[in-house]
Amino acid sequence: MTNFCDVAGLRAKETQILADAGQALGAVYLAGYVVECRLKHFLHVRGIPFPRSGREGHNLRGLWETACFPKPPGHGGLFLAHWGTELRYATELPKGVDADDLLKGGRDLAGWVSTRIRDAGSKARGRSRGVGR
Q: Rounded distance, CA 51 to CA 40, Å?
């Protein structure tokens, strides 16, 4: 299995490098993979099946729904609404969409999912020790 957590950390560092270099489109694109990897890690920890390849394997909205997460507010919602693998072929972001807003949304989503991963891990460890029954 791919270590989604490690991959997410690496992509997050690369996202920041691109953002710092003024390469907003590339940074936004990679930010989507950070969120994707965090979602896949959460789903794996929870034992929830999810697509691992193809179009659905990169569908952030679909993975978000599979995790049964609520619709994210603010920048996170904006990110989910505008991110897609088609950005890899784009030369600019859609008109009227601010790269900084999208990057903030990607960071917000990745952080939110990371918290859910920690929560899920804590509950799983508690169950394995007989806690919380």
A: 9
For the segment 11-58, what is each residue's pLDDT rounded down to a tens digit? 999 999 999 999 999 999 999 999 999 999 999 999 999 998 888 889
Q: Which pTM was predicted? A: 0.88
Distance CA 125, CA 121 (A): 6
> For residues 7 and 37, is the Cβ–Cβ distance under 8 A?
yes
Helix (H, G, I), strand (E, B) or coil at 55: helix
> Which residues fall within 8 angstroms of residue 40, CB to CB, at 6 or more apart?
2, 4, 50, 52, 63
From the list 112, 121, 80, the residue with the least C-alpha distance to 8 is: 112
Tokens of 9: 């950390």
Residue count of the chain: 133
